[in-house]
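Model: Ready when you are.
Researcher: Fold this.
Model:
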Amino acid sequence: VHPNVSQGCQGGCATCSDYNGCLSCKPRLFFVLERIGMKQIGVCLSSCPSGYYGTRYPDINKCAKCKADCDTCFTRNFCTKCKNGFYLYSGKCLEKCPDGLEANNHTMECTSIVHCEASEWSPWSPCTKKGKTCGFKRGNEVRVREIVQHPSARGNPCPTTSESRKCIVQRKRCQKEGKGKKNREEKRKKSNKDESKETRQESKGRAARRQNREQRENNNKTQPKKRKAPNKEQNLAPTDTAH
């Protein structure tokens, strides 16, 4: 062992030196060189830092640097996140997206262009004029549809979602709201009045029947009982027969 190599290292180092830091790492740790000014220091980490990717070898695990335009990468040729000003597409960082794709400034990726999609038209509404369905001959009817897929930045814009056309109907007279309300109120009062009249008649009938029943009971109580007439044959006294 070189005289400058120490065996009692800390921070995950298997071997180290006072000048260069870690020279080798403990199992499963990654060795990476960090620059401090003009000097490079070896450190041992459980995972590689941003801008590096890890490779494992039988004797040592190393962190290698990604490409200059990659912020993070899986291998040197496959980026997972690009630096500012670049868009990620199939593991590569591009300044401009290929044809048929558009740049997503939120995710900084090249994505497929999405066009607007609308549902089928609804049936035509009833013919109306100023919100009414009576009192006119010519009116308008409308139909609508919904947007089921909104477009992306470069996608085709959405079409109109409503249509209107003229319509002709058979004219019919509108019932006046005040008159109709008055008729309904009169019908309701008449119905209540009839119900009250029937109720009063039923109450009077019950009262009359009850009064007649009480009168008969009172008559039966006050009328004297008739005495039973004596039998004429029994009252005849025996008489002597004149000879």
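Researcher: Now this one.
Model:
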Amino acid sequence: ANVMALLRGRSGKTVDLGSGDGRLVLEAYKQGLRPAVGYELNPWLLWLANYRAWKAGYHGKVSFLKQDLWKANLSDCYNVTVFLAPGVKPPLAAKLLAELPDEARVVAGRFPFPSWTPTSTLGQGLEQAWAYDMKEVRRAAQSGAGGRPV
């Protein structure tokens, strides 16, 4: 709920990196975020996500792809959600900085990006979510590195 609240009022392509059972992708679609896409490597979770989409009447309206997030091109994504382990966040931060447009928003659940300052946050404990607007993240990275992008 907190992740989706941080995306309220936004538009554009929405991607969940490591989409698991697909619940965030389905909720994003319900809230009008389109296209809504999930990237997941686990075939059982992909099957479950597609089943849930079919059951909700969204078959063919949302996409769940067997895609390695490190190989995915995210340059057309305006909303990115991640519920990934802390160890993945530093290299993922570099990929997102390199690929996402300035207008993009990244929302992390459970674990924040350690080197980024959130634009906003909601919730506490396991329910906490952090939103990062890429324009602000880039501005902070450039000023923190003497004007050089990190």
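Researcher: Key takeaway?
Model: Helices lie at 2-5, 23-30, 43-55, 89-99, 134-144.
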